[in-house]
Amino acid sequence: MLTAYFPSAKTRNLHQSFRLESDERTLRIMTKNRRNERRDDGWPELLSVEEAAEFLRLKRSTLDHYRCEGRGPIYRKHGARVFYPKPDLIRWSERNSYASTSERLQKPE
């Protein structure tokens, strides 16, 4: 006698979530590999909001808040998407250097 196997909704969701996670992981790896390739077109590397936040070791919500207040790094909009040029992230971080809680470091000229 043949018995049909119908996985429970819980099992199906587990398999689906595992598949999604592995697909996202694969996409992340592919994107990182593509980003590590040297570009010779003269354009700076553009990072997404999530990547920029990770690069600056901030939470995405903090970076979003800074952008909304005008205190964050320079960004570019391509349609509705926001990108941060990597050199601008570095410059913004260097501008926020302090010697003590009351003394901002002066940039050498």
Description:
The radius of gyration is 22 Å and the shape is globular. The termini are far apart. The chain has a domain of 53 residues: Multidrug-efflux Transporter Regulator, Chain: A, Domain 2 (Orthogonal Bundle). The protein has a 3-stranded antiparallel beta sheet. Helix 2 crosses helix 3. It has 109 residues and is mostly helical. It contains 4 helices and 3 strands, in the order αβααββα. A hairpin with a 2-residue loop joins strand 2 and strand 3.
Which descriptors would you attach to this protein?
51% helix, 109 residues, mainly alpha, single chain, Multidrug-efflux Transporter Regulator, Chain: A, Domain 2, 3-stranded antiparallel β-sheet
Largest sheet: 3 strands, antiparallel
Number of strands: 3
What percent of residues adopt helix (DSSP H or I)?
40-55%
User: What gyration radius follows from the Cα positions, in whole Å?
Assistant: 22 Å
Number of helices: 4
CATH architecture of the domain at 44-96: Orthogonal Bundle
Strand arrangement across the biggest beta sheet:
1-3-2
* CATH fold naming of the domain at 44-96: Multidrug-efflux Transporter Regulator, Chain: A, Domain 2
- Overall CATH class of the domain at 44-96: Mainly Alpha
Content of β-strand: 5-15%
Helix and strand sequence: HEHHEEH
**Dominant shape:** globular
Low-confidence stretches: none
SSE topology:
Blueprint: H1 9-36, E1 46-48, H2 49-56, H3 60-69, E2 76-78, E3 81-85, H4 86-95
Antiparallel strand pairs: 1-3, 2-3
Helix pairs in contact: 2-3
Pfam families: HTH_17
Protein name: Helix-turn-helix domain-containing protein
Domain Helix-turn-helix: 46-96
